[in-house]
Amino acid sequence: MIEIAHVTRSYGAFKALDDASLTIREGEFFSLLGPSGCGKTTLLRMIAGFDNPTSGSIAVDGQEMLGIPANRRPTNMVFQSYAIFPHLNVEQNVGYGLKRLRLDATEEKRRVEEALAQVSLTGLGKRGATELSGGQRQRVALARALVMRPKVLLLDEPLSALDKKLREQMQVELRRLQQAVGITFILVTHDQYEALAMSDRIAVMFGGKIAQVASPKEIYQRPVNRQVADFLGGMNFVKAEIVEENGASMTVDTLGFGRVKTDKPAAFVRNGKAATLGIRPERLRVLWDDAKDKHEVAGTVVDRHYFGEITHLIVDIPGLEKPLSVTETNNFGADDIPVGAPIRLAYDPDALVAMAD
Ligand SMILES: Nc1ncnc2c1ncn2[C@@H]1O[C@H](COP(=O)(O)OP(=O)(O)OP(=O)(O)O)[C@@H](O)[C@H]1O
């Protein structure tokens, strides 16, 4: 278990990390997600021991890490630029860190073999480091970290140099590997899909602060504020006025959707009677012909964008400040709905989430 408590890292007056607190559980695949410059790499480097907090503490399994050099910590880092040694072969690259442990030759060989098998590189041990594809180099870098049997593996944008197909394949593999070896993985990424696809939990960061920590589904469906909602994909925002609050739910009035009862997230910050409701574009469904739904809004299609398997419809709803963005599959012909056509959209009130502005 990793306990990050009130960690701040200042560069002069600038705080790259500002009072960040976070608990990462043992065996968890945890991602630090946020835009460039939000402080995620800074945090990862401090866990690794390559940098020190200006204040605050970082503990692994109850042991304070401050003052412990990187090579004495139960962590190991895989870098974005894999930094494998070009003059060594795969085996030598993977076994490099083991030299320090002075294992006997058989044991060293066994551990290298084991690490190569974990990343599906069995048989490639004698290959030169320069005779590998990008994906294979990435695996060597992973094996080189795993061979040290760290308690925590730290990954700094490890897939960003790979093309899209390979990246998606490696995401699945990394996730499978993490489950197989059972050690804690902490991944730094600015790619929301990568974080959603791989993680048990995600911390979303902005400007040196942690905005939300939750499961991928919770982060996507119940973002605590507009910034988190926006970063995780498209979101329609609707102005609302709170009529009644009742524990975890509340009733709000909107001009476009009328009066609706919605969930109130635990972290909801009250700002008088005003609130913002969010609904993801794919949670609005086109109602065809005479189909009826208990919850529907009616409007006019003002724009249409074709994306092959899906169509994006922009729908003007009377009373709403901004038109709604709707994602519909093309199974039923959403790609043929003409601009200017009247349209009705069904929604599930559960898909409307209240958030702080
Ligand atoms: N040595 C340094 N001196 C001054 N400022 C720094 C230093 N290192 C990092 N920063 C600043 O701290 C902030 C956080 O940097 P960090 O590398 O953690 O961001 P990041 O979220 O990982 O972004 P990226 O995805 O671009 O790497 C940035 O604004 C960066 O410019």
UniProtKB/TrEMBL annotation:
GO molecular function ontology, one term from the record: ATP binding
Function: Part of the ABC transporter complex PotABCD involved in spermidine/putrescine import. Responsible for energy coupling to the transport system.
PROSITE patterns, per the entry: ABC_TRANSPORTER_1, ABC_TRANSPORTER_2
Family: Belongs to the ABC transporter superfamily. Spermidine/putrescine importer (TC 3.A.1.11.1) family.
PANTHER family: SPERMIDINE/PUTRESCINE IMPORT ATP-BINDING PROTEIN POTA, SPERMIDINE_PUTRESCINE IMPORT ATP-BINDING PROTEIN POTA
GO cellular component: ATP-binding cassette (ABC) transporter complex
Domain ABC transporter: start-end pairs: 2-232
UniProt keyword terms in alphabetical order: ATP-binding, Cell membrane, Membrane, Nucleotide-binding, Translocase, Transport
GO biological process annotation, one example: putrescine transport
Species whose genome carries this gene: Mesorhizobium zhangyense
SMART domains: AAA
Protein's name according to its UniProt entry: Spermidine/putrescine import ATP-binding protein PotA
Subunit structure: The complex is composed of two ATP-binding proteins (PotA), two transmembrane proteins (PotB and PotC) and a solute-binding protein (PotD).
One Pfam family here: ABC_tran
Domain of life: Bacteria
Catalytic activity: ATP + H2O + polyamine-[polyamine-binding protein]Side 1 = ADP + phosphate + polyamineSide 2 + [polyamine-binding protein]Side 1
Assigned EC number: 7.6.2.11
